[in-house]
Amino acid sequence: MSHLLEVKDLEVKFALRFGDITAIDGASFTLDKGERLGLVGESGAGKSVTGFSIINLISKPGFISRGSIWFEGNEISKYSDARMRKIRGDRIAMIFQDPMMTLNPVFTIGYQMVETLLAHRNISKSKARAIALEKLKKVHIPSPEERLDQYPHELSGGMRQRIIIAISLLADPAIIIADEPTTALDVTIQAEILALIDRLKRERGTAVIFITHDMAVVAQMADRVVVMFRGNKVEEGTVEEIFEAPTHDYTKALLAAVPKLGEMRGKRYPEPMRLLGSDAHAIHPIVGSDETLLTVKGLTTRFAVRGGFLRRTVANVHAVEDVSFELQKGRTLSLVGESGCGKSTAGRSILRLVEPLAGEVVLDGTDIMALDAGGLRRARADMQMIFQDPF
What we know:
Elements: E1 5-16, E2 19-31, E3 36-40, H1 47-54, E4 62-71, E5 74-75, H2 81-85, E6 92-95, H3 99-102, H4 109-120, H5 125-138, H6 144-147, H7 157-168, E7 175-179, H8 187-204, E8 207-212, H9 215-221, E9 224-229, E10 232-238, H10 239-244, H11 249-256, E11 292-307, E12 312-328, H12 343-350, E13 358-363, E14 366-367, H13 373-379
Parallel strand pairs: 3-8, 3-9, 6-7, 7-8
Antiparallel strand pairs: 1-2, 1-4, 4-5, 9-10, 11-12, 11-13, 13-14
Helix pairs in contact: 4-5, 5-7
């Protein structure tokens, strides 16, 4: 019996000024109808490049230098871009890791979903919009009718990721390549999305390639696992074989690096996460202080909702409401919650990247809310933000 997808001896290179760099070195694997394959490894292992190669989206100066890719008995690695467009997004869909780079910022969500459907189906715009609405409901988007008329920048990172997942489901593809599909999602929505993908497999026989570094997702969702390291496939097996009896040292290191709930029980101080190739005994515990560094009291941030011809304020979104906490020097505070609950807005409000409506923010004795523009610029040398979207 032939496989749904076959990747044979795939080699991908990038032509640079000082010579070619090999990103994928002779990878081979198969995928059958309804199968879920986990493609795992650390950042830079070649996972995403493998996924892009399957749908012929390797950007120049990248190119497939050796090997072939077969889908439903056809060698699609030899297809022209025009011919691949008929397959890409229809028979093989991809959930990209970065939703903001996937969605077009100048078009509404509904326009982009309808356009995708019309490119592959001979249906009316009203029918396409109805299908788009149905898919948004499947990924549990709150107020899906409203989302169709919104722009990408009006949604949180988690919401945008759910939009991308909904777009990948539009044409009911035979294969979904999911490149870190749940990275931007909170745990409750992640569980729902994984359950949705699992249901697609059972109801429609959809095959899925999970590109991920999250071994917990792999353990829950994959039937078979391919482990990649520096462009090479170093191990392959069923999920039981990989998790219970890994043979390659890199696979063992990956599994050992997964933090386990409760492993710090009984220890006085937090310990750094284990690093691949490092001696655990050489990493010392992190000792914090009881001296307060940051005090936040009654932080409140609201956003005006404007409507009507004159764009008057008709309502307010209560993004952050009366939030208070303290952070001590050398310690870490976790701010957790579902997508859209106000976590990122709270962080931006502390730095006054968005102006709070009310509240106090005191950093090492400095009243941040009282600073003028020049003082705020100087203060930001001591408070930095790592944004969700690197772009």
